[in-house]
């Protein structure tokens, strides 16, 4: 009985401690609450808990993990709030381009399943890559999910930046870094077909197109402020709206189209196939 009680207490504690909630530290304020911004000191951050905002200073501790690549996040694709991010401030005034080079691949759907959540920058193996802003290294190790040798830095502006495929990592987890500090050497580790930097920008877990913030050709920020709003996460909305169908024995494209209220030509476009293509039993077809 005593054992049962203590188990119950542990379960209750897990359910009701703040960690069990989705707590995210955001060092900015929704535009709708801009009036409050005037009275908020430069270092204050806010908590987004179930889309409510609370003042806090815990940006470098909340949801801090050295082992999880992606920490808990709120889905901002459904949030009606917009957030004004001050990319730099007088305490952390610098931005440095992580590596100069051509953008080889952009933030886009690579196929109907996989969205490329960052940009790929061409580099030579061994090229030095620099921290974009001041911050603290949250993650610095080999990642089996495809990033290879990966560094993730959380910044005072509440963005996290990801640097993938390094040949060598030059920083330790929990190390404070300055904008422009070398953090790794470029390479091709992980799921990569040649030396490049895979670079992501995330705001409370939500990937943002880095080219909306950084002008890679001009090697600078587009501006010192950035507004996060749900339209930046259209790919997440699209993913939610997608529907797939698994091909059964006896199916034809026209039957599948009819059954799912679409046309053969739409099926072909969505799946990159021809109306004459052979479809296999068990194959997954996108129907919406
Ligand atoms: Zn990439």
Concise account of the structure shown:
By secondary structure, the chain is an alpha+beta fold. The chain has helices at residues 2-16, 34-39, 234-241, 253-259, 264-271; strands at 23-26, 29-30, 45-49, 52-56, 83-86, 103-105, 108-109, 115-116, 119-122, 128-130, 135-143, 148-155, 159-166, 168-169, 176-177, 182-185, 196-203, 206-208, 214-215, 220-221, 225-228, 244-246, 284-286. The chain is built from five helices and 23 strands.
Topology:
Layout: H1 2-16, E1 23-26, E2 29-30, H2 34-39, E3 45-49, E4 52-56, E5 83-86, E6 103-105, E7 108-109, E8 115-116, E9 119-122, E10 128-130, E11 135-143, E12 148-155, E13 159-166, E14 168-169, E15 176-177, E16 182-185, E17 196-203, E18 206-208, E19 214-215, E20 220-221, E21 225-228, H3 234-241, E22 244-246, H4 253-259, H5 264-271, E23 284-286
The structure holds zinc ion.
Description:
The chain is elongated, with a radius of gyration of 22 Å. It has helices at 2-16, 34-39, 234-241, 253-259, 264-271; strands at 23-26, 29-30, 45-49, 52-56, 83-86, 103-105, 108-109, 115-116, 119-122, 128-130, 135-143, 148-155, 159-166, 168-169, 176-177, 182-185, 196-203, 206-208, 214-215, 220-221, 225-228, 244-246, 284-286. A hairpin with a 4-residue loop joins strand 19 (214-215) and strand 20 (220-221). Strands 6, 9, 11, 12, 13, 15, 17 and 18 form an 8-stranded antiparallel beta sheet that branches. The chain is built from 5 helices and 23 strands. By secondary structure, the chain is of the alpha+beta class. The longest helix is centred in the first third of the chain and has 15 residues, at 2-16. The N and C termini lie far apart (53 Å). The site of zinc ion has 5 residues, from loops.
């Amino acid at each position: 009985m005593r054992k049962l009680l203590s188990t119950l207490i542990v379960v209750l504690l897990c359910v009701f401690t703040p960690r069990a909630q989705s707590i995210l530290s955001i060092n900015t304020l929704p535009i709708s609450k801009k009036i409050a911004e005037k009275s908020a000191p430069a270092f204050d951050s806010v908590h987004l808990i179930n889309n409510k905002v609370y003042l806090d200073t815990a940006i470098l501790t909340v949801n801090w993990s050295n082992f999880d690549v992606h920490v808990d996040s709120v889905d901002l694709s459904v949030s009606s709030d917009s957030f004004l991010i001050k990319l730099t401030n007088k305490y952390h005034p610098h931005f440095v381009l992580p590596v100069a080079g051509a953008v080889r691949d952009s933030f886009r759907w690579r196929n109907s399943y996989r969205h490329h959540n960052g940009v790929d920058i061409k580099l030579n193996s061994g090229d030095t890559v620099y921290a974009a802003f001041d911050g603290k290294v949250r993650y610095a190790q080999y990642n089996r999910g495809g990033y290879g040798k990966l560094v993730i830095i959380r910044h005072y502006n509440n963005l996290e930046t990801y640097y993938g495929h390094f040949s060598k990592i030059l920083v330790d987890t929990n190390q404070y870094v300055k904008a422009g500090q070398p953090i790794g050497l470029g390479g091709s580790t992980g799921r990569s077909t040649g030396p490049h930097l895979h670079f992501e920008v995330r705001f409370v877990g939500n990937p943002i197109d880095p080219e909306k913030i950084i002008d890679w050709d001009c090697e600078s920020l587009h501006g010192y402020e950035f507004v996060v709003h749900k339209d930046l996460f259209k790919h997440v909305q699209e993913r939610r709206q997608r529907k797939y169908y698994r091909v059964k024995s006896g199916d034809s494209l026209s039957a599948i189209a009819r059954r799912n209220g679409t046309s053969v030509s739409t099926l072909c476009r969505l799946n990159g196939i021809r109306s004459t293509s052979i479809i296999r039993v068990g194959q997954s077809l996108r129907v919406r």
